[in-house]
Amino acid sequence: MLAQQEQIQRKSSRVATDLARLSVFKGNLREMEVQQRVDEQAREQNREKKHENTI
Length: 55
Known about the structure:
Helices cover 96% and strands 0% of the residues. The relative contact order is 0.06. It is mainly α and 55 residues long. The protein has one helix at residues 2-54.
């Protein structure tokens, strides 16, 4: 009975660790997506400025 309880606790601990890692990965992915949008907006603004300067 005790061994079974320890096994369940280890599995629960692994699941909790995996969930925490996934949460961090999800947050990192969200940050990367936001940064990509910011970068794309900056590139677009630079393109517009270059276009204005050539006119």
